[in-house]
Amino acid sequence: MGVSEHLIVDIDLRRIGGSALTDDISIPKNRELEEMESGIPVTYVPARNTIFLSFALAWAEVLDALDIFVGVNAVDYSGYPDCRPEYVEAYEHMANLATKKATETSERLRIHTPLIQLTKAEIIQRGLDLGIDYALSSTCYDPSSEGEACRDCDACLLRLKGFEEVGLADPISYRTGKVIDR
Q: Which residues lie closer than 8 Å to 38 by C-beta, 6 or more apart?
């Protein structure tokens, strides 16, 4: 893949809080799709993608890279403002104002969002086509201590809907038992 180095940096957003994913706030459960699409839910983590992109931007600058890839999605998502195309475009513009290479040369950094306009079903299918083992993944906002998904949070409901639309059972374990057939 041409990766020069893989860097793992711990970023503990629980120190900031402000979200059901980083603080002691209840995770919404069993919401209808219409509810998920209206307003910004309590699972929104303040500035999460801005923070992630800032770290990626700094690392890209050190590596002299001009391309950053981020897996945000603006179709089947929970209304997070930092998953929208206009946010990514604005961040890319800012990045090209804020980096040494972009201000000293005509080269411009690009933020790539290959999943931004795909449905969950299309994302799942793309992963399957690439050989992704979804049994090794989870999107649950409220997993059990054993790592079993809850089946009721927005992330689980959207994931299950995506697998159903692809015509497959989700291979992960849920608290109410492993999904074999839907």
A: 79
Q: What is the pLDDT of residue 182?
A: 38
Do both 113 and 159 map to the same domain? no
Distance CA 93, CA 110 (A): 9
User: In DSSP terms, which residues pair with 68 in a beta bridge?
Assistant: 111
Domain that holds residue 174: 120-182
Distance (Å, whole) CA 126 – CA 80? 23
Q: Tell me what percent of the chain is helix, strand and coil, each rounded to the nearest 5.
A: 40, 5, 55
Kindly give, in sequence order, each residue whose CB lies less than 8 Å from that of residue 1, ignoring residues fewer than 6 positions away: none
Element (H, E) at 104: helix 100-104
Can you say whether the dihedral through the CA atoms of 170, 171, 172, 178 is positive or negative?
positive
104 and 82 together in one domain: yes
Cα dihedral sign, 89-90-93-94: negative
**Do 35 and 89 share a domain, yes or no?**
yes
User: pLDDT digit string (tens) for 74-102?
Assistant: 886 667 899 999 999 999 999 999 999 99
User: What is the per-residue pLDDT across 154-180, written as a single tens digit (0 to 9) for each?
Assistant: 999 999 999 999 999 999 999 875 554
Residue 68 contacts residue 58 (beta carbons within 8 Å): no
